[in-house]
Design goal:
251 residues, alpha+beta, Chorismate lyase, 2 domains, 6 helices, 24% helix
Length: 251
């Protein structure tokens, strides 16, 4: 990364600096490499440290950089590609490499989820709530709550899957016995709740992508997944020709 003095440009200085830094990340740095400190970078580019911080913050938001306590600012790995189109998808599986089952508990779902499951929100009916984490390059990038009514997994027994991650895998195994008749999916921008933020190593309120999926079997909603993705690791793209209405989160 050579010394560059920024000239007058019609865009904010920090935005122009961000563009210059992004080009340097592509050509001069490897994934995981630590950037020089702020004082050195500010001197190289002839900008105030406040301007530099704005540029670095923007690159971090875009997923190009990661700030790690005790390490410094490093070059982030490529954004993870996560296909959320409904074409060819299957039930969430217990052996998916990217997803790690964390826990499973019987709990009353939020009212909005109960309605998606065609349950009466006022009845207080409990469902199996599976918690999973998605990991990429050794870092958690998504947290999922999978809500499964007992009627969808009638073969689940306490002996086969007593608690925790083992029970989560048991619920996922039992789902495989159902015939998946279809699914629908919606994505919206949201803010990380405290529990998601903690697991995803983000601050509460950080921008996230919330992917809500309904799985259909035997003419009813058999399960509902709400997956929260770090917005700095994913981006939305639309499906290709012949896939109208589908979309994916992809690199």
């Amino acid at each position: 990364m050579g010394t560059t003095q920024l000239e007058s440009v019609p865009e904010p200085k920090y935005w122009h600096l961000k563009t210059v830094l992004a080009e340097a990340l592509d050509s001069d740095f490897a994934v995981g490499e630590i950037l020089p400190n702020e004082r050195e970078l500010a001197a190289r580019f002839g900008v105030a440290r406040a301007t530099l911080r704005q540029a670095l913050e923007q690159l971090e938001l875009e997923g190009r950089l990661q700030r790690r306590r005790g390490v410094g600012t490093t070059v982030a790995p490529p954004r993870m590609g996560v296909d959320v189109s409904t074409t060819g998808h299957q039930w969430p599986a217990p052996g998916e490499e990217a997803w790690q089952p964390v826990d499973c508990a019987a709990a009353v779902p939020p009212a909005a989820v109960a309605r998606l499951l065609d349950l009466d929100p006022e009845a207080g009916e409990s469902v199996h709530t599976v918690r999973r984490l998605r990991v990429s390059h050794g870092q958690p990038v998504a947290a999922e709550q999978l809500y499964v009514p007992a009627a969808s997994v009638p073969g689940l027994t306490a002996i086969d899957a007593p608690s925790g991650a083992a029970r989560a895998r048991g619920v996922l195994r039992e789902l495989q016995h159902l015939t998946l008749e279809g699914q629908d999916r919606a994505v919206e921008l949201g803010s990380a709740r405290a529990d998601d933020a903690k697991e995803l190593d983000r601050l509460p309120g950080a921008p996230v992508l919330v992917v809500t999926t309904r799985y259909f079997s035997e003419g009813r909603t058999a399960a509902v997944s709400i997956a929260t993705y770090r917005a700095d690791t994913c981006r939305l793209t639309f499906g290709g020709p012949g896939e109208a209405g589908d979309f994916q989160i992809a690199s």
